[in-house]
Amino acid sequence: MSFAPAIATYQSTLSQLKKHGFHGESQTRRAFAEMLNTISTERGLTYVDEYPVGARGQKRVDGAVRDTYSTLGYWETKDEYNDLQTEIKTKIAAGYPLNNTIFEDTNQAILWQNQKEVARFNLREDAEISTLLHTFFHHTEEDKEGFDAAVTTFVDKIPEL
């Protein structure tokens, strides 16, 4: 499944918005959200805006991707006027999830997985966006990898038992 059509739509939408002078987070966030939504739908997943996180859901990330049972990843956007690194530090201090989270500002994205920064991506380059999306959508948490391996082993042993 190619990310190319969703990336092209993202780039086109963002370009049109910026061409007309719209650079603020509330104006540009829709472009990235629609890209995540399109890819999620193609994969049988659900994209949710303003997803509650934290102990009582008192915080909200800009978006999240879910399957039937769990949240697979999060997205937090800022605009090009914010210092993305400072904004990330603020979100970390506030307890936002870092197991599979994209932080972006329409120019760059910083991907956190398993509580650490894993890569930075230039959002002006389609190939880098594709790598970001591939890494994000194919991430498996360490605990889940161990669980899946245990299930596979157990299924193989059922006939013996």
- Approximate helicity band: 40-55%
The chain-level structural class is alpha+beta
Continuous helix count: 5
Q: Spell out the helices and strands N to C.
A: HHEEEHEEEHH
CA radius of gyration is 17 Å
Strand content: 25-35%
pLDDT averaged over residues = 90
Poorly predicted regions: 146-151
**How many β-strand stretches?**
6
| Bulk shape | globular
Q: In this structure, how is the largest beta sheet organized?
A: 6 strands, mixed
Calculate the terminal CA-CA distance, rounded to whole Å: 39 Å
Strand order of the largest sheet: 1-2-3-4-5-6
What layout of secondary structure does this protein have?
Blueprint: H1 4-19, H2 25-42, E1 46-53, E2 59-66, E3 71-77, H3 84-93, E4 100-104, E5 108-113, E6 116-122, H4 126-137, H5 142-157
Parallel strand pairs: 3-4
Antiparallel strand pairs: 1-2, 2-3, 4-5, 5-6
Helix pairs in contact: 1-2
Structure, explained:
With 161 residues, the chain is α+β, with helices and mostly antiparallel strands. 45% of the residues lie in helices and 25% in strands. It is built from five helices and six strands. It has helices at 4-19, 25-42, 84-93, 126-137, 142-157, and strands at residues 46-53, 59-66, 71-77, 100-104, 108-113, 116-122. A six-stranded mixed β-sheet has the order 1-2-3-4-5-6. A hairpin with a 4-residue loop joins strand 2 and strand 3. Helix 1 (4-19) runs antiparallel to helix 2 (25-42). The termini are far apart.
